[in-house]
Each structure stands twice: as structure tokens, then as C-alpha cells.
Write a structure and sequence with these properties.
Blueprint: E1 2-5, H1 12-15, H2 18-22, E2 28-31, E3 36-38, H3 45-51, E4 69-79, E5 91-93, E6 97-99, E7 103-106
Parallel strand pairs: 2-7
Antiparallel strand pairs: 1-4, 2-3, 4-5, 4-6, 4-7
The protein binds FE2/S2 (inorganic) cluster.
FE2/S2 (inorganic) cluster (FES) is lined by residues 58-61, 63-68, 85, 93, 95.
Length: 110
């Protein structure tokens, strides 16, 4: 199953510099208050955040506690394992999803 958010009015090509154009086939992950980086095909979005040493909350890593909820601001993600926790609105579980396009996410600040 896929989730998609499209709220930006800026086209991808306008926002990209020369380096991003070279790597345009690799999903780019933009995180609030942290850096933007390229997905290295880790198992999940949570693993990708941890690989960049971005402190993302988690507990079960199995899709049932909901601790890894983040907001999907822009882009498309795909499920890598079943999510048993019911998310609300634009929330996704970072341990259960991987990016399939450039994405922008927001990690809750509490
Ligand atoms: S860490 Fe528990 S649902 Fe993702």
C-alpha cells in the first residue's frame, strides 16, 4: 500500500541543484530541523533516519506501538511491513514505510 502527500507548489526541478539532478533517481528525505539526505535503501524510513544519526523515536520497530509516528508533509511512501497501529491524518509509521519519491517529513517535538 502507498501513501502520498502533495502540498508543495514548487516543482522538483526548480528546487534542485546540480548534485540533486545527478542523483534524481534516488529518493531525497527532508526532515524538519535536520538535514536533507538521500535514501540509501535501508529497510525502513526509521532505519534511514538512524543511519543519519537523526534522533527518531521508536519502541517496537514492528508497527504496533505508534512511537515512530512522523508527519508526511510531501512525497510518497510504501509499506515495508504491516502497520498494526492506526495512524491519523498525515501520520505514517517510520518503521513500516520506505520512501518511493522525494519526501519531506516532520518528527514530532515531544
Ligand atoms: S516503533 Fe513501534 S510502530 Fe514503529
Amino acid at each position: 500500500m502507498k501513501w502520498q502527500m502533495t502540498t508543495s507548489t514548487t516543482s522538483t526541478s526548480e528546487a534542485e541543484g546540480p548534485k540533486e539532478q545527478v542523483m534524481s533517481g534516488i529518493p531525497r528525505i527532508k526532515v524538519n530541523h535536520y538535514s536533507t539526505f538521500f535514501y540509501q535503501y535501508e529497510f525502513s524510513l526509521l532505519d534511514a533516519l538512524e543511519a543519519q544519526e537523526i534522533p527518531a523515536p521508536y519502541n517496537c520497530r514492528g508497527g504496533y506501538c505508534g512511537c515512530c509516528r512522523v508527519r508526511l508533509i510531501e512525497g510518497e511512501v510504501e509499506e515495508v511491513q504491516d502497520a498494526l497501529y492506526d495512524t491519523v491524518g498525515d501520520e505514517i509509521l517510520a518503521c513500516c514505510m520506505k520512501p518511493v519519491s522525494h519526501v519531506e517529513i516532520e518528527i514530532p517535538e515531544d
